[in-house]
Design brief:
With about 290 residues, the protein is of the alpha/beta class. The chain has three domains: about 80 residues, Winged helix-like DNA-binding domain superfamily/Winged helix DNA-binding domain (Arc Repressor Mutant, subunit A); about 100 residues, D-Maltodextrin-Binding Protein, domain 2; about 100 residues, D-Maltodextrin-Binding Protein, domain 2 (3-Layer(aba) Sandwich), CATH 3.40.190.10. Helices cover about 40% and strands about 20% of the residues. The protein has nine helices and twelve strands. It is elongated. Strands 4-3-5-12-6 form a five-stranded mixed sheet, with helices on both faces. A three-stranded antiparallel sheet has the order 10-7-11. The protein has a two-stranded antiparallel ribbon with strand order 1-2. Belongs to the LysR transcriptional regulatory family.
Length: about 290
């Protein structure tokens, strides 16, 4: 019998089905079923009534469940007590981030975390959307800071770090430049310059336009500084998160709110808070406090 098997057993009880438990654990359902069967063989009891649709405990399973929970909590507490004495290499926290920490004033927060937890070495890897997404899925990062759109199709848990919204950028002399707000659907005839197609902001803009019944005419994709310069030169209009303009502004660019706000939030994400190393759970709790 292993701790992992007990963790799987508890996950099934708390998720109510083998399928949901496998999803929460990020393992195949066949792997989960095999481990539970091995546990039952070793204990020489049947833990679940498999004739029912949901994972219904047998009498033996109901007896095991509170003991398993108590044992796992005891192990977790033991590891927390030992953490200050463990090899520092076990307290390296790998954090993947989009290049947005400055705009959302997250650098001071991470610096304060590092100062208050000298036992944790915070390794920050600043990358663009696609390598961040791939690294997250492959387990290269314990946690990431990015946008929700980046996590589409990835089973994950998020904690909101910052609210933001898309705004319209036009040349200063554009007919829409003096408007207090613009309906997104009025932009159906405009040419757009947007961020790279692999970026979460590109996908967010595309989805927002499609919901309003049109496909944006994207004539060019570029980085933010190039987008702002191109808009200032009258090449096209653009949609960007408002906070990006704290860094990239131009006197010949008008910034106009959308009539119906489109959220462009920033989140801290992990595959599963329960499976984070202790240093990862510490950062998660720090941001959640």
């Amino acid at each position: 019998m292993t701790l992992e098997q007990l963790q799987y057993f508890v996950a099934i009880v708390e998720s109510a089905t083998f399928f949901d438990a496998a999803e929460s654990l990020h393992i195949a359902q066949s792997t989960l079923s095999k481990q539970i069967r091995n546990l039952e063989l070793e204990l020489d009891v049947q833990l679940f009534d498999r004739s029912r649709r949901h994972a219904s405990l047998t009498d033996a399973g109901r007896i095991l469940y509170p003991d398993a929970v108590k044992l796992l909590k005891g192990v977790q507490g033991m590891m927390q007590h030992l953490a200050p004495y463990q090899d520092s290499r076990r307290s390296i926290l790998h954090l993947g981030v989009l290049p947005i920490l400055h705009q959302y004033r997250l650098n001071p927060v991470l610096r304060q975390f590092a100062e208050s937890h000298p036992e944790i070495t915070l390794m920050i890897d600043e990358v663009e959307d696609e390598p961040l997404r791939q690294g997250f899925r492959q387990g290269s990062y314990d946690l990431i800071i990015g946008r929700p759109e980046l996590l589409t199709g990835v089973q994950s848990t998020c904690h909101l770090l910052a609210h933001d919204r898309l705004v319209l950028l036009t040349p200063a002399g554009h007919p829409l430049a003096g408007r207090p707000a613009v309906p997104l659907e009025e932009l159906s005839g405009e040419s757009f310059i947007l961020m790279h197609p692999s970026s979460s902001i590109y996908r967010l803009c595309l989805t927002a336009c499609q919901k309003k019944g049109f496909q944006p005419a994207v004539t060019r994709t570029a980085k933010i500084e190039s987008i702002v310069s191109a808009v200032a030169a009258g090449e096209a209009v653009s949609l960007l998160p408002y906070s990006n303009l704290d860094v990239f502004r131009h006197e010949n660019v008008a910034v106009i709110p959308l009539q119906e706000p489109v959220a462009a939030d920033v989140v801290l994400a992990c595959l599963s808070p329960k499976k984070l190393p202790l240093c990862g759970r510490t950062l998660w709790k720090y941001f959640s406090a």
